[in-house]
Amino acid sequence: MACEFFALKMICPPPGFRGLLLPIFHIHIPTWNSTPSLVRLKSWSSAALSVIESNPRNDLADEARSSVSQPREGLNRVPGRLRTGTGRSSEGNENRIRKRTVKLCSHERLRRFSVMLRTCALKGSLNDGKAIHGQVIKYGIDPDAHLWVSLVNVYAKCGDRVIARQVLDEMPERDVVSWTALIQGFVAEGYGIDGVVLFSEMKKDGIRPNEFTLATGLKACSLCLNLGFGKLLHSEAIKVGYFSDLFVGSLLVDLYAKCGEMELADSVLFCMPEQNAISWNALLSGYAEKGDSQEVLKLFCKMRQLEIKLSKFILSALLKGCAKAGNLRQGQVLHSLAIKIGCEFDEFLSCSLLDMYSKCGLATDALNVFMKIKNPDVVAWSALITCLGQQKQWQEAAHVFHLMRCIGIQANHFTFSSILSAATDMRDIRYGESIHACVWKSALQYNLTVSNSLITMYAKNGCMHDGIRVFEAIKDPDLVSWNALLSGFHNYENCYLGPRIFRQMLVEGFKPNMYTFISILRSCSSFLDLGLGKQIHAHTIKNSLDGIDFIGTALVDMYAKTRCLEDASLAFSRMTKRDLVTWTAIITGCAQTGQAEKAVSFFSQMLKEGVRPNEFTLASCLNACAHIATLENGRQLHSMAIKGGHMEDLFVISALVDTYAKCGPIEDAETIFEGLVSRDTVSWNTMICGYSQHGQGERALEAFRKMLDEGTMPDDVTFIGVFSACSHLGLVEEGIVHFNSMIKVFEINPTITHFACMIDILGRAGRFDEVESLIENMKIAPRAMIWEAVLGACKMHGNVEYAKRAAEKLFELKPEMDSTYILLSNIFAAKGLWDDVRHVRKFMSSQGVKKEPGSSWVVVDGQVHVFSSQDGSHPKIREIHLKLEELGQRMESVGYIPKTENMLHKITEREKVEHLQHHSERLALAFALMYSKPVKTIQIYKNLRSCGDCHDVMKLVSGITNREIVVRDSKLFHHFKAGTCSCKDFW
């Protein structure tokens, strides 16, 4: 285009440059002695001349040549009587007649050229227009005002805006008609901003707009959503008296509707002296775009009362409103109206029907509409592909795209965007790459819409390198391009790049929108960057976007994952509409940050508000139930999963197995696990660790062997369960074998947890030399977990010296941990070292550390009852004490002797016995025996480890009462039945 511009500025361009423009003929441009306007016209004529010379047989050019040749023919046909006579009089008459004829023929010639140029503009034939322009230049015709306007119009309407502007600049006098023609050309091509700029230039040029100019300017404002300039044009229309013009009024309605100013659009429409289908369609389209189907229906009824003729465009606007609101019933009524007025098979309306049925979830009906179109064009095919993609029928969308290509329909950029969206949702990168190849073959690889879809497709499929390459190939990326690129940096591997891209986008002057903030907040969630997340939050407030529910959901998720539950709850409470995604985010956040009670509470509140859970919500809430061991809630969630049809989802099934395993009924966990069609590593890990936690080490190791036999590869969590089983079974050598195979066979690097498990295995066996050797040879610096395992082993074997060393390390690493002081004190007390006991307790007090009080809880008739040791606050405490005395007498009758050595306090023997009798788990046991159903298993939960005496009591009571008792302490599940425990007294 730049070359064309400079060529037009040269009267006699250099031969080399002329050769580029005129590849077929070398044209001689004659020298004219003409008016200044003709010289200006000559100065940018090369492109027009090149077209006429390279198309010598063009019909319009032939007509133009015949128009030029008419004056000579007119002169030759001067009547004989005018040529008779002698002398100067006869010659003078002939000259006067010749001048008059030339003048008359010149006007006719200019008129014919103007008509032909208008025809070219209507047909969009740029080459024909250039050919006629070339004839004008070649024969030295001096354009009049009409021909100038026709030249501007043909270039503007045929898409050559640069030359159209140059023609306007060369005009001796520019009027409102020529300016309007130029602005219309830009607006017709979708260049709204340029149209606004040209309108402003026209005003500076002193040209007063007419009704057509105002209408064109308003159309430009609608294209670029320039509400401010549109209001100025509104005032101009009122000022010059064109507000009552039907076209101006309709375009004002359209402008306000597209800018979301529906009250202004209403006011303009109902103030118009005359209304037509176009103005009503503009208003209806505005409300439809907002999704206000009720207002659309109300206006439609009013329009029908005014007897406005129903058209396919109005029906299309109404259908758009139904599609936005998902109002199928109204959509079907409109479909019947379309049949009634005979435009059911119109392709334009059929696409709207397709979209309506698609948005309402009826892909079959959409397909039926498509099948009734006689010759569907690319728009109808694209609408069907979009419909199938929106209904998650991605394979069907791919099949339709294939059929479209087979019958020879050339895909456009909308088609490619739709099928790329389907490829993105299919997560089929190979299919997406094949579509990319089709894009190249169709020469649409630089189309911005297609490029943005390609970036999204590569980003969502994890191929960020390819997505970046597409992005870098875009000449002028827009905000959608940046958002598409940013959407690929959510996952853990590359989330750190998200903030960099966001900052670069700001540097390049782009204003972030809702989708930008959602993407960058998701990056902050993955990257756990709370500081940046708070800055982004502030940025959303500054841009008045914090009230958008989608951003609210992203904020809840970000704060929840960065363990700021107070901020997450605050963001959650400020949301006006909380959908399932939002509820799932807050429930998951609570479950993952150890606030399981809050997670269950939020879940209950969600159900009260009528929001039904999906598989992700159920899995998150089940994890919370597993954490706080609320079996009844877990069973209710199990029934919800069955009713909701989520029992095929692997996440829900794994969460159910984990919940039952951690809440007590390991048999239920095993039943669900055995019913799995396919078992992955996570589900196997849940069962292996569940068996270990329930003291069923043999079954844990058996499950591990079955897992390997089925070909499922273990991970680091699998071996934690295996080591735990070996520890509780006392299988030292087998534990060492598994530890070595984990490193050498499965190539899993041991973590600090694996080393702690091995130290526990060796320490329980009293092999302290090997424990010390393992700690010294660890490639990881010993942490608190390691020394906790050492201290536990020292207590079991009474190793005082090693216990002191382990405790010193723990005092350095975690001085606030109460269990270190308690364990060390108990080790000293067991050896009778009371001075050392007092010293430890004094040191504990000086550090401000307090012992966590022992507590137990039991669920009876859906209500949780909590008990603390020596606590008399429970309303049934008197009955509980009486029940404990009764149990004590029955246990004594079968040989029970209290293990007072477990009471590591310097008090009398009687005080020790009384203290043991009122431990929290015994209070919970007595209450459950009195108020729970006899056939029901008693489930007791305890925050600390059970003492040896309470363990013996539970075994005896299970035999005396013939009741099954399950106690979950801080380390293990103990299943007491018929006087025995599942841990085999080894915990």
UniProtKB/TrEMBL annotation:
Organism: Trema orientale (Charcoal tree)
Pfam families associated with the record: DYW_deaminase, E_motif, PPR, PPR_2, PPR_3
Protein name: DYW domain containing protein
PROSITE patterns, A to Z: PPR
Keyword Iron (UniProt): no
GO biological process, one term: RNA modification
Residues covered by the DYW domain: 895-987
Domain of life: Eukaryota
Organism placement in taxonomy: Eukaryota, Viridiplantae, Streptophyta, Embryophyta, Tracheophyta
